[in-house]
Design brief:
The chain is an alpha/beta fold. It folds into two domains: 264 residues, Metallo-dependent phosphatases (Purple Acid Phosphatase, chain A, domain 2, 4-Layer Sandwich); 140 residues, no CATH class. Helix content is 32%, strand content 19%.
Length: 422
Amino acid sequence: MGHSSRQVPFAVPRLLHTADWQIGKPFRWIDDPERRSRLQRARLEAIERIISLGSSHSVDVVLVAGDLFDSSTVDAALVMETLELIGSSDVPVLVIPGNHDHGGAGGVWRRSDVQQEMAQRAANLQLLHSPTPLSCAGITVLPCPLRRQHESVSPGAWLESLDWDSLDPHQPRVVLAHGSVQGFRGADYEQEQPTTASDRSPRSTEANQLHPSRWDTSAYDYLALGDWHALKPVGEKGWYCGTPEPDRFPTSNDDQRGQVLIVDVERGQQPVVSPAPSASLQWHRHSVTLRSHADLKQLRDAITERTARRVGRDLLRLELDGQLGLDDHRQLNDLLDNLQTRLLHLRVRGQCHRRPQGDELSGLLQRHDAPLISRIAQQLQQAIDQADANDQDQLDLLDASLCELHRLSAALDETHELEAAA
């Protein structure tokens, strides 16, 4: 993909800020291997979109603020594909190690196959593994890499004693860092998804802490951050760009994921920051209390509006509550079955209870053509009325029995209709 020159009155460097690709992320909580593979491939395909965005926005350099890879054990073939895609760009790609792909012993960047593939497939990639100023594409980059998974000393500590006057006074200065800032940290969002024992690792709240307030704010022009997986400004000059491809359900309507940042930087000026969408998969969260057929219709319409009837490209966390009649509850289950098939992933939390509505219950109790059904319905309803309200297991069993009786009653009606038609 070619790099076209920008027509601007004067040369203001433009960068693409991205982070937390986590290529090789296992997504173990997805049971179906094909769907799990789809999520993994989407992260790789996002690199192509990043390169395309860099080209269409005529960026001068791509900055990756850590966690390009998910772990030190990422598959060798995946490493090859990743580096080949990066190498297809004709702009420099500067990368710092993060906590998932730290630069120390045992880290992915120390692997001989990774180093060999970097040299052969991605000559434009430069790994910034030491805290040393670097001039590239008209920008002075100040890297704050992680050389261990959990650094007790702040990765940005070296900036507190930096002689800023030694830097080019005309080039804009960009701090490239991976870690946490006061008030939130990357570990906080990791509690959103289920994890296995092998996914968990001890992480001190003090590990990988950045302290931008200790730096001379006027001495740099942009703070490019990684580690937080959603878009978030930090002070006047800093941004977490979020992941280019989401990897968890949103926590609020303001939880913006699936983008990179296009940034114009000029020495002594405020950076001009523009998010550019980069995701192919959409993650949704929806909470609903169901108490009527109208509520069920609104749920169906809301899901259709969010997913646009797409197949295999949406993930939905559905939080249910309430109670529906038997027919409506059956329709709810039909909807959930359809979503399980159509969506890439459906996670249901909570429960919508089922209980016969007045007309459904009277239809069972007054079944004169089937006295046995009527008698059993009376006995079940009496047992429900007399049951201990705190004994949910007993109530669920009685409700399930009444629902099954309703199903058998409906099946009997269908049989009568077929016999009449014959």
